[in-house]
Design brief:
The protein has 338 residues and is of the alpha/beta class. The protein folds into two domains: 107 residues, translation initiation factor eif-2b, domain 1 (Four Helix Bundle (Hemerythrin (Met), subunit A), Up-down Bundle), CATH 1.20.120; 218 residues, Rossmann fold (3-Layer(aba) Sandwich). It contains eleven helices and ten strands. The strands form two sheets. It has a seven-stranded mixed sheet, with helices on both faces. Strands 5-6-8 form a three-stranded antiparallel sheet, with helices on one face. Helix 3 packs antiparallel against helix 4 and helix 4 packs antiparallel against helix 5. Bound molecules: ribulose-1,5-diphosphate. Ribulose-1,5-diphosphate (RUB) binds next to helix 2, helix 6 and strand 6.
């Protein structure tokens, strides 16, 4: 039996960046699994489980950096595998998978609301706030502060090469917030006038480093140099459990044609073009990470990971959902380090 066609559409839209931004990607993945749970005409429970795993594999391979994507899939798959262990039948597994997918979506939406409320406390009247790329968590925080009556201005970087900053500027302007669009390379030029920077995240590592749109780390460095606060707004499902086991977060490298057009590439075959989509901002340049569980210093990332994903080190998830760490997982009875 083939998977519902919407699953392929969602996977394609994530790959082609019609669905983009770590939170939206995660919710789209949960929606795809919900489709499978509800609509896949399974013979029995095993058949449904294998369809859910097939869909998960298809989805997890669409974009490699946003940890929200495997975490959304794992949220559902872990519960489904528990159901299998408890001997649930087909309708039981359908129920578990649907409920988990819906729960994840609700949790993800609510998380942004909490982040906005916590983050807005850090925005003051008269501030000039810089943001980079297009993050729902960061934008919602700014809109929340504005709705609370605070009056401030925003500098939004255009975010080459795909100009997600234009989306940010438009959304802030629609909310009535004064916003100025600048080229990415002007970030340091303006930094001396900036009061705080707020960005989103695609991934947060166990050591507190944050992976976000390319250019984020240069902005963080400029903020550090100018003694400007650098805030990251990130739901806890963007924290990477793989990094607890030493794994590195993979940085997506996209097509050169996003940077220069194909005519240029054809006319200059000896010019190499690189297009990494994300970069890593070390913890030392980050003042706070604003999560739905509260505001934490980056050094507390590992505590969040242990609380949320302690099970990851013992889980029996398929390899494609553990970043290939299957054999490196810590078994219950393995000796602890000396
Ligand atoms: C989007 C991006 C966003 C994070 C967080 O990159 O870097 O800052 O995903 O977004 P892309 P959110 O456009 O390549 O997906 O807070 O909405 O999850």
């Amino acid at each position: 039996m083939d998977l519902p066609s919407e699953v392929y559409e969602i996977a394609r839209d994530i790959r082609d960046m019609k669905i983009r931004g770590a939170g939206r990607i995660a919710r789209a993945a949960a929606k795809a699994l919900l489709k499978v749970a509800r609509e896949y005409e399974a013979k029995d429970a095993d058949d449904l489980v294998s369809a859910l795993l097939r869909a998960s594999k298809l989805l997890v391979e669409t974009r490699p950096t946003a940890v929200s994507l495997p975490n959304a899939l794992r949220y559902v798959v872990v519960r489904v595998l528990e159901g299998v262990d408890r001997g649930y039948d087909l309708s039981g597994i359908r129920e578990i998978a649907s409920k988990a997918a819906e729960e994840f979506t609700e949790f993800s939406t609510r998380a942004v609301e909490y982040i906005s409320k916590f983050g807005s406390h850090r925005i003051r009247d008269g501030d000039l706030i810089m943001t980079h790329c297009n993050s729902d968590a960061a934008i919602s925080t700014l809109i929340q502060a504005w709705e609370e009556g605070k009056r401030f201005e925003v500098l939004a970087t255009e975010t080459r090469p795909r100009f997600q900053g234009r989306l940010t500027a438009a959304r802030l302007a629609d909310a009535g917030i004064p916003v100025t669009l600048i080229v990415d390379s002007a970030a340091r030029y303006f930094m001396e006038d900036v009061d705080a920077v707020i960005v989103g995240a695609d991934a947060v590592a166990a050591n507190g480093a944050v992976v976000n749109k390319i250019g984020t780390s240069s902005i963080a460095l400029a903020a550090h140099e100018a003694r400007v606060n650098f805030f990251v707004a990130a739901e806890t499902y963007k924290f990477s459990p793989e990094t607890m086991l030493g794994s590195l977060i993979r940085i997506e490298e996209r097509d050169p044609s996003e940077v220069v057009d194909r005519d240029f590439l054809a006319a200059h075959p000896n010019v190499k073009v690189r297009n990494p989509a994300f970069d890593v901002t070390p913890a030392m340049y980050i003042d706070l990470i604003i999560t739905e569980k509260g505001v934490i210093p980056p050094s507390a990332a590992v505590i969040i990971l242990k609380e949320e994903y302690g099970w990851f080190t013992r889980s029996r998830l398929p390899e494609f959902l553990t970043g290939g760490l299957g054999s490196a997982r810590i078994e219950e009875d393995s000796p602890t380090t000396a």
